[in-house]
């Protein structure tokens, strides 16, 4: 449903989105994860038609949205990462205002508003002033607003940021309901666990580049098969190399002088076993350490919620 190829966005000399490609199938909840400043909002604004890319291709339902910006917008609902101030507007007036923007007929507005406020659990807040709502309620109202024109594709920029655990759970339940209604959803976060149980696919973005995509299981699997080890020996590097190459859990052995680097797919026990084997073979091992890969450190960062959680 969404196909992005080699997307680039530069702000002056700074490249915010760097050759990014991504594919979202109909009915998926696609989690777009990355640390602050990774390029999530920039990418989402481009897909939503609010920002022009420097280069690259974006297709929604087969339509090239960069060169045909008109027709597709009715299919997209965008929820921005901020909520503006709306003095003196009540919840229903706010919905009515946006219904006007989406050119919904007057006679249909009340029914749509009722239905959407029910969906986001705000039916009892109809006559509240928007500014008097809690942050979680405002975010749900913002979501309701992005649904007014019944879009097929929802682009939600950190919809759960700044919410307490209870409000996050509520938001998740609403997103599940939307999935059941057949919506395709692209959702961003800088925290992986927030998305892992909800999303059918994940893409991790780092400094504008997509570093890994797949289901959560596939990503974890790829990471566990991608451990890098470094072995230093005083002598017998060639014997060590042969031993490594014979081991089925070892791949990509690189040797330079007495330092050997390799990929390892076994667990801790298997690593200990491998070291023991070398010692038994009389190889003078100086050190045997796991090196943190760049991907792994990115993953750990977002898996733990990064530096800041507030968003
Ligand atoms: N209008 C702009 N002019 C210049 N640089 C910008 C502009 N908008 C964004 N950037 C830069 O582009 C990079 C990506 O920003 P973006 O907002 O897309 O990241 P993000 O992943 O959404 O981050 P966050 O998690 O903080 O929302 C950042 O380094 C940001 O400073
Ligand atoms: Mg952002």
Structure in a nutshell:
With 311 residues, the chain is α/β, with parallel strands linked by helices.
How would you portray this structure in words?
The structure is a single chain. The protein is an alpha/beta fold and about 300 residues long. It folds into two domains: about 1-220, Rossmann fold, CATH 3.40.50.300; about 225-290, Alpha-Beta Plaits. It contains ten helices and 14 strands. The protein has helices at about 40-45, 90-100, 105-120, 135-145, 165-180, 190-195, 215-225, 235-245, 270-280, 295-305, and strands at about 1-10, 15-25, 30-35, 55-60, 65, 75-80, 155, 185-190, 200-205, 210-215, 225-235, 250-255, 260-265, 285-290. Strands 6-7-8-3-9-10 form a six-stranded mixed sheet, sandwiched between helices. The chain has a four-stranded antiparallel sheet with strand order 2-1-4-5, with helices on one face. It has a four-stranded antiparallel sheet with strand order 12-13-11-14, covered by helices on one side. Strand 7, helix 5 (about 165-180) and strand 8 (about 185-190) form a beta-alpha-beta unit. Helix 2 (about 90-100) crosses helix 3 (about 105-120). The longest helix has 16 residues, at about 165-180. It starts with a strand and ends in an 8-residue tail after the last helix. Adenosine-5'-triphosphate binds near residues 36, 39, 40, 42 and 81. Adenosine-5'-triphosphate (ATP) binds near residues 14, 40 and 42.
Question: What is the CATH class name of the largest domain?
Answer: Alpha Beta
Order of helices and strands: EEEHEEEHHHEHEHEEHEHEEHEH
Number of domains: 2
**Strand neighbour order, sheet with most strands:** 6-7-8-3-9-10
Reported CATH architecture of the largest domain:
3-Layer(aba) Sandwich
Shape: elongated
Number of helical regions: 10
Q: Rg from C-alpha positions?
A: 25 Å
Please report which band the strand proportion falls in: under 5%, 5-15%, 15-25%, 25-35%, 35-45% or over 45%.
25-35%
Structural class: alpha/beta
CATH superfamily of the largest domain: P-loop containing nucleotide triphosphate hydrolases
């Amino acid at each position: 449903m969404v196909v992005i190829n080699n997307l680039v966005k530069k702000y002056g000399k700074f490249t915010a989105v760097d050759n990014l490609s991504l594919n979202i199938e109909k009915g998926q909840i696609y989690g777009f994860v990355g640390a602050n400043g990774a390029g999530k909002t920039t990418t989402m604004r481009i897909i939503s038609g609010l920002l022009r890319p420097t280069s690259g291709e974006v297709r929604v339902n087969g339509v090239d949205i960069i060169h045909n910006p008109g027709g597709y917008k009715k299919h997209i609902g965008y929820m921005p990462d901020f909520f503006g101030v709306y003095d003196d507007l009540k919840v229903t007036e706010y919905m009515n205002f946006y219904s006007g923007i989406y050119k919904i007929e007057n006679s249909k507005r009340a029914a749509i508003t009722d239905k959407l406020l029910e969906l986001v659990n705000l039916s009892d807040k109809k006559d509240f002033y928007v500014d008097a709502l809690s942050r979680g309620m405002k975010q749900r109202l913002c979501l309701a607003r992005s649904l007014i024109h019944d879009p097929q594709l929802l682009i939600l920029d950190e919809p759960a940021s700044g919410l307490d655990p209870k409000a996050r759970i509520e938001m998740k339940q609403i997103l599940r309901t939307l999935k059941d209604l057949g919506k395709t959803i692209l959702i961003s976060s800088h925290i992986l666990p927030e998305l892992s149980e909800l999303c059918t696919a994940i893409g991790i973005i780092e400094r504008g580049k997509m570093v890994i995509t797949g289901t959560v299981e596939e990503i974890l699997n790829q990471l566990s098969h991608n451990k890098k080890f470094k072995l230093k020996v005083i002598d017998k590097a060639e014997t060590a190399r042969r031993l490594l190459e014979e081991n089925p859990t070892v791949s990509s052995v690189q040797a330079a002088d007495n330092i050997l680097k390799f990929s390892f797919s076994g667990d801790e026990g298997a690593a200990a076993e491998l070291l023991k084997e070398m010692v038994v073979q009389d190889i003078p091992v100086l050190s045997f350490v796991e090196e943190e890969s760049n991907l792994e450190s990115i993953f750990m960062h977002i898996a733990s919620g990064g530096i800041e959680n507030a968003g």
